[in-house]
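Review form for a predicted model. The reviewer records the input and the model, then writes brief findings.
Reviewer: anonymous (R2)
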Amino acid sequence: MASNDGEGESPSPVLVWFAGFCEPIMLTMLRYLARALAVFLAVLPVLHISSLPASAGVSIMLSPTKTDLMVNSGETSTQEISLRNTGDEPTRVRVYALDFSIDRENNYTFSEPGHESYSCASWLDIQESEFVLGPGETKQVQVTISVPQAVEPGGHYAALFFETVPPETQPGVSVAVAGRIPSLFYLTIPGVSDADIVANAEISSLMLPGWVDGGPVQIGAVVHNTGNVHLTIATKAYFTDFRGRQAGEIDLGQTTVLPGAERAITGTWEKTPFVGPVKANFVIGYFDDHEELVNKSMDGNFWIIPWKVIIIAIASVGLIIVAVLVLKSKFRLKLERREPNEQA
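Model under review:
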């Protein structure tokens, strides 16, 4: 007797199950793509702005950009800053001092002299506060630092700005843009005894994800300067996998942290293990007030869970199981149909 199994048969249970399994995954992927597109469109103007010259009117170059020295109370120190006009036109330059601070995310804030408790902007004296530099001309600017007799020991800071003064323009002519470059001054005022200078830092917290699906991984540590002088702090991170083996390390570089301030020191770990828990050991190093190297550390943990691979593996196993069940059911059905025919 001929069989008509192929006529009007319903969709395969495997296809029905697979369609039902894929539908929520596809919807989730579409939602993630929509969010990613929205974020990209939102930051596109910012990316465009940040690609413009940060100081379009600046045509000067200075050295050094940072001065770090120790001066006793009641004494003076004279420093030179080399300023060069790299443009093709004469440039008028104005020089003035401001306070500065650095926040946790490495953003600089400048304020009027005396705003910060550790200000030394008023101690800086410039022979010429305004002058003209010709094209290609270099000028040695003398800065005299006069430390008051009665001053608190520790770190004191200021930013000396060199600002270009745009020439006056006629009506209808494009407006010239002024620019400025700072040279930062880091001063340490020693006290009567060693106890007056405190050089100390701590790792206040770690910046680790709860879990990731693989590398690269953004990690970091928040360092708090608990002393009264600025510190140059070097940071490294060491990683251990679930077997206790070394899984890698990264150098997070060096950064200067002002007294009482926090800095987030971040980096990217590229080559991570495939799966499992990871232990991260962060180590900071700096020199204390006795010029001895100090190392401090803090541990943290996170998981690497390759969920995409896991989902594919589970789906593959599920498909195999369903296929086996379907084939087994069809084989049983054929056996059941064959038995009545053989009996007949």
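Findings: The first strand starts at residue 60 and ends at 63.
Further findings: Residues 13-50 form the longest helix (38 residues).
Recommendation: see findings above.
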